[in-house]
């Protein structure tokens, strides 16, 4: 069992996936998502600003989770990327995620192949699977 099962069953774990402690705090802002679908190729680019709002330098592991369209039958959120950034106190860094066809695909049993479903996706950016700071939707 993992975070996907806990999320699906609405069970709050003692420590969520990606949980970590820090001596400082971070503020997330300005999530921007750009989605493109060209024939069989799909690409989503997202950027988010992360500011060290605490009193000491520190590191944050920024995580990207994806919610697939309802008709895809996938768990509520799937981890699709993460970036560790070191940020000096009071400073801000822009974190970029690029999701290609691999990260946007699900296994289709009828066609026995990986497919990118059509519909509304939601990209969640946060510090853990339960500590989501920003979300944005896009369609493919």
Query: How would you spell out the order of helices and strands?
Result: HEEEEEHEEEE
Enumerate the strands of the largest sheet in spatial order, edge to edge or round the barrel. Answer: 4-3-8-9
Instruction: Please report which band the strand proportion falls in: under 5%, 5-15%, 15-25%, 25-35%, 35-45% or over 45%.
Output: over 45%
Binned, the helix content reads: under 10%
Alpha-carbon distance between the termini? 30 Å
Strands, total number: 9
Structural class: mainly beta
Global geometry: globular
Rg, nearest Å: 16 Å
Largest sheet: 4 strands, antiparallel
Q: What's the mean pLDDT score?
A: 93
Task: List the total number of helices.
Answer: 2
Low-confidence stretches: none
What does this structure look like?
The protein is mainly beta and 140 residues long. The protein has two helices and nine strands; from the N terminus they run αβββββαββββ. The chain has helices spanning 3-9, 101-104; strands at residues 26-38, 41-52, 58-67, 78-87, 92-99, 106-108, 113-115, 120-126, 132-139. The strands form three sheets. Strands 4-3-8-9 form a four-stranded antiparallel sheet, with no helix packed on it. β1 (26-38) and β2 form a beta hairpin. It starts with a helix and ends with a strand. Pfam families: Fn3-like. Its EC number is 3.2.1.21.
